[in-house]
Design brief:
With 321 residues, the protein is an alpha/beta fold. The chain folds into two domains: 148 residues, Quinone Oxidoreductase, Chain A, domain 1, CATH 3.90.180; 141 residues, Rossmann fold. It is built from nine helices and 15 strands. Strands 3, 4, 5, 6, 7, 14 and 15 form a seven-stranded mixed sheet that branches. Strand 14, helix 9 and strand 15 form a beta-alpha-beta unit. Helix 3 crosses helix 4 and helix 6 packs parallel to helix 7.
Length: 321
């Protein structure tokens, strides 16, 4: 089968398409013929070696496709089922062996591209807005990189919960996307001091919750812009790792800083399906809309990573297998 293989860490150029051995379904597994794979920032961290993996490896943690075969002991899915998944490496390939208890049934009528856009970012949006501080009507919530695939889902979900939603973006095009998704206040950090603008827009009160997947360039401002007794949740490092802070510095305004990873919030099949069903329910009800910004063939994985890391993309990037 065809697969993208990383033999050494580095820039997008290390993503090479090669022939690889087809997987076989072991006990408890299903082999999925992949139709589409989601591209996420964590894929770039693996490629660069920021989150070390043993080489060679096939990147990608999210995909959708058709069950081709099942191993012993599998009864939850059968050949022909349309499924999606996350948290299993090897998505940049034509096939992947996946633990059956990690497979999410794809609703009828949902395309494979849409299904591949749901698991990682959708369930990440769910835990980020439910596990640390669940916004309620009137709360102020900041979403950094509000026009990205992750940001657009967070904006919609926070708005659905009744929050006054703030977003940072880098361009007028991205500002429009964030506004269309429901953001009440959109700040172009390339044109103005976003911390000062937050102070102006909140009457100096700051933000109840800040969700930050950017990291190094935004985190110092988070600590200034957050309200007394507010929460900052950092879940990514698109601009690099945030600089260290002294925990005692949080005392003066009783700030809570948390670090999140989806993979710690999918500990059981029940938890996985609770989050997946919440995402799929939002899509069915119409208040949560997927924005797929670009679909590229698997062979153009390098370009997908370049687009993502250059911050030129909006919405979700999908690799079509």
């Amino acid at each position: 089968m065809k697969a993208i293989v990383v033999k050494k860490t580095g820039g997008p150029e290390v993503l090479k398409i090669e022939q690889a051995d087809e997987p076989k379904a072991a006990a408890g597994q299903a082999v999925v013929k992949l139709e589409a794979a989601g591209v996420n920032f964590i894929d770039t961290y693996h490629r660069r070696g920021l989150y070390p993996k043993e080489v060679p490896f096939v990147p990608g943690l999210e995909a959708a496709g058709i069950v081709e075969s099942v191993g012993p002991g599998v009864s939850a899915v059968k050949p022909g089922d349309h499924v999606a998944y996350t948290s299993v490496p090897g998505a940049y390939a034509e096939k992947c062996a996946v633990p059956a208890d990690k497979l999410i049934p794809v609703p009828a009528g949902m395309s494979f591209e849409q299904a591949a856009a749901v698991p990682l970012q959708g369930m990440t949006a769910h835990y980020l807005l439910h596990e640390y501080y669940k916004p309620k009507a009137g709360d102020t919530v900041m979403i950094h990189a509000a026009a990205g695939g992750m940001g657009l889902l967070l904006v919609q979900w926070a708005k659905h919960l009744g929050a006054r939603v703030f977003g940072t973006v880098s361009s007028p095009e991205k500002a429009k996307l964030a506004k269309d998704a429901g953001a009440d206040e959109v700040i172009m950090y390339t044109k103005e001091d976003w911390v000062a603008k937050v102070a102006e827009l909140t009457g100096g009160n700051g933000l109840r919750l800040i969700i930050d997947g950017v990291g190094k360039t935004t985190f110092p401002g988070d600590l200034q812009a957050v309200a007394n007794r507010g929460n900052v949740v950092i879940f990514g490092s698109a601009s690099g790792r945030a600089e260290p802070i002294h925990p005692n510095d949080l005392q003066q305004r009783s700030i809570t800083v948390s670090g999140g990873s989806l993979f710690n919030y999918l500990n059981t099949r029940e938890e996985l399906m609770e989050r997946a069903n919440a995402v799929l329910r939002g899509i069915k009800e119409g208040w949560l809309k997927l924005h797929i910004g670009k679909v590229l063939p698997l062979e153009e994985a390098q370009e997908a990573h370049r687009l993502l890391e250059s911050r030129q993309s909006t919405g979700k990037i999908i690799l079509k297998v």
